[in-house]
Write a structure and sequence with these properties.
It holds the Pfam family GST_C. There is one protein chain. This protein is of the alpha+beta class and about 210 residues long. It is about 55% helix and about 10% strand. The chain contains eight helices and four strands, in the order βαβαββαααααα. A four-stranded mixed β-sheet has the order 2-1-3-4, covered by helices on one side. α1 links the parallel β1 and β2. α1 packs parallel to α3 and α4 packs antiparallel against α5.
Length: about 210
């Protein structure tokens, strides 16, 4: 059994998607970041950076004490390695997947997050910041579109790289992106959106928040 400490954000969705896809038993513990639950002492013991998601695996592969993992990319890698799913053992395929996973956690997520902040949540409109992050959002969509130009999924086979990137594309309208301008991303997005496991993951999100 895996305890998932979660809120209904793109980073949170990454892990619920994986757990649904891999058919793993898990319990969701909502961490309402709007109410400051992420600063509760018990949560900081699991996620010292006070960010969701985080997990506690009560049945780790080594049979030892429960393992806690924070940071969404690390969680995806941990779960993929434990289950043997969505991360190839082939060194070249694995490397490509890990590169695109790190592209998401180091680029796509942070830059689109800044887009969300400055266009919707900042207490004042700062044209320079808005323009900067809108342009970077467009650039990153272009990078993803090119990567998907000759393959069904980001690295060919459906993997943790897709699970990491997809939730950040879901709010494309809020990012002022016309998905029709990125035809390969749109095809990929529609394919993942219609996966039964992804539908189950987002249905749980709606029930929580």
């Amino acid at each position: 059994m895996i305890d998932l400490y979660y809120w209904t954000t793109p980073n949170g969705h990454k892990i619920s998607i994986f757990l649904e896809e891999a058919e793993q038993a898990y319990r969701i513990h909502p961490i309402n970041i709007g109410k400051g639950d992420q600063f509760q002492p018990f949560f900081l013991q699991i996620s010292p950076n006070n960010r969701i998601p985080a997990i506690v695996d009560h049945k780790p592969a080594d049979g030892g004490e429960p393992i806690s993992v924070f940071e969404s990319g690390a969680i995806l890698q941990y779960l993929a390695e434990k289950t043997g799913k969505f991360l190839s053992n082939n060194i070249r395929e694995r490397l490509e997947t890990m590169q695109w996973l790190f592209w998401q956690v180091g680029g796509l997520g942070p830059m689109l997050g800044q887009n969300h902040h400055f266009t919707q949540y900042a207490p004042e409109q700062i044209p320079y910041a808005i323009n900067r992050y809108l342009k970077e959002t467009e650039r990153l969509y272009g990078v993803l579109d090119k990567q998907l130009s000759n393959r069904e999924y980001i690295t060919g086979k459906y993997s943790i790289a897709d699970m990491a990137a997809y939730p950040w594309i879901v709010p494309y309208e809020r990012q002022q992106i016309n998905l029709n301008d990125f035809s390969n991303v749109k095809r990929w997005f529609d394919s993942i959106q219609n996966r039964p496991a992804v539908k189950r993951a987002y249905a749980k999100a709606e029930a929580i928040n």
